[in-house]
Design a protein that fits this description.
- Strand 4 and strand 5 form a beta hairpin.
- Strands 3, 4, 5, 6, 7 and 8 form a 6-stranded mixed β-sheet that branches. A two-stranded antiparallel ribbon has the order 1-2.
- The protein has helices at about 10-40, 95-105, 110-125, 130-145, 205-215, 230-240, 250-255, 265-275, 280-295, 300-315, 325-330, 335-350, 355-370, 375, 385-394; strands spanning about 55-65, 70-80, 155-170, 170-185, 190-200, 225, 245, 350-355.
- It is elongated.
- With about 400 residues, the protein is an alpha/beta fold.
- The chain is built from 15 helices and 8 strands.
Length: about 400
């Protein structure tokens, strides 16, 4: 009975199918090349005619890597005319889709060495570093166009932050920041509106960054959300006079709790959460003063001072200018922090960058890759609520 059971060797079948597909692709491509040669010469092979424009002079062979594997092309040689194929570009060694797949792997977070290993594993040959470099130049040109695109909508909410990475500077390795800005436009959709190298993330860097956004058309900003970065608050006040600043409540709570002893950490965390649970800004400020007084009574003077110093700019989201429905999402910088984690995951693979441009291009490429989905197409906030508050305050 067992002798009658049909058994299939899947590995052998798959190998034979791959070989069959590869042979058929090779035959088809070579037939197309011969047909192109016939059209250029004005006559078929060995055909005698007075309308002939050129003569055949044999073939040359070269390999081409396609999805079906590596095939051998027989390119026609001509006398009296230049053979240029519309099917296969001159000097091309890989099918375009294969190269695009390799670039996608690189942008998705695969290192250059891994790209080379995968290329040899799948297609039996290496992806030369120069080929990858040439392809990335085309990608970089697209990234520069994306970075400098005009901003055609208004962005009531602007989230800003810097992501740090290591780069070579003057022969030594230093930490340098890349500044990122995400805007929520008047339709409620998120968009990365700016990415630039920020050097030391000081006031001059922020001013240059915001100025570039304004020159590209940034308008309608009513609230800027960010951490307590050096120079950021002053830049917002001077260059975006119609906008208020919201300090990220998560970062602010961490700053306060870093000054609290372990003995009082649980109590202090609960007290701070109670402050930001208030329904109005006045109530939050009163609650914060009560908590600060209790901190002083427990010997936590540094934490109390930090709380009093930053509670004002950390409760901007509670003003009547901003809808209650928006508060949960505009009081923190969590949205841009999640994006920064994706950036760091990619930059850690590289380690130290040789220059600022290479770091900036890789960060931008990673941002475009991560946001090329429903991240930007899904509505993040209902902005009609903001319109209601504008009418009320006006």
């Amino acid at each position: 009975m067992q002798d009658q059971i049909l058994q299939v060797d899947e590995n052998m079948l798959e190998t034979r199918l791959d070989r069959l597909v590869s042979e058929k692709v090779e035959q088809l491509l070579n037939a197309m090349l011969d047909a192109e040669a016939d059209e250029i010469t004005g006559a078929a092979r060995y055909e005698r005619t007075g309308d002939r424009k050129a003569y055949r002079a044999g073939h040359y062979e070269r390999d081409l890597t396609v999805k079906a594997g590596t095939v051998t092309l027989r390119g026609p040689k001509l006398k009296g005319a230049l053979f240029e194929s519309a099917v296969i570009e001159r000097y091309r060694r890989r099918e375009q889709s294969v190269e695009e797949a390799l670039i996608d792997m690189y942008l998705a977070g695969v290192s250059t060495r891994q790209v080379d290993d995968i290329s040899r594993l799948l297609w039996g040959e290496r992806m030369p570093s120069q080929t990858l470099s040439d392809k990335l130049k085309g990608v970089y040109a697209q990234i520069d166009e994306w970075r400098n695109r005009p901003l055609e909508r208004s962005y009531p909410y602007l989230f800003v932050d810097g992501v740090w990475h290591k780069r070579t500077w003057g022969g030594s390795v230093e930490n340098v920041s890349v500044l990122v800005a995400i805007g929520v436009d008047d339709t409620g959709h998120r968009e990365v509106v700016g990415v630039a190298e920020g050097m030391k993330e000081d006031r001059a860097s922020w001013e240059q960054f915001v100025r570039s956004l304004i020159e590209r058309g940034l308008r309608g900003v009513r609230l800027v959300v960010g951490d307590r970065c050096a120079g950021l608050v002053a830049t917002v006040n001077s260059m975006l006079p119609d906008a208020r600043y919201q300090r990220c409540t998560v970062h602010f709570m961490r700053n306060v709790l870093s000054r609290v002893s372990r003995k009082h950490a649980a109590w202090a965390a609960g007290a701070l959460k109670a402050v930001f649970a208030m329904e109005s800004r006045d109530a939050a400020l009163r609650k914060a003063e009560d908590v600060a007084a209790q901190m002083e009574s427990r010997g936590l003077k540094a934490a109390a001072s930090c709380l009093r110093e930053g509670i004002g700019e950390s409760t901007t989201y509670l003003l009547d200018d901003y809808p209650v429905e928006h508060r949960r999402r505009i009081r923190t910088n969590n949205m841009i922090e999640r994006l920064n984690r994706e950036i760091r995951r990619r930059t850690r693979v590289v380690g130290s960058f040789p220059d600022g441009r290479s770091a900036l291009m890789l960060v931008c490429a990673r941002i475009r890759y991560v946001t090329a989905n429903d991240w930007s197409s899904r509505r993040y906030l209902d902005m009609s609520r903001l319109g209601d508050t504008m009418q009320t305050t006006d």
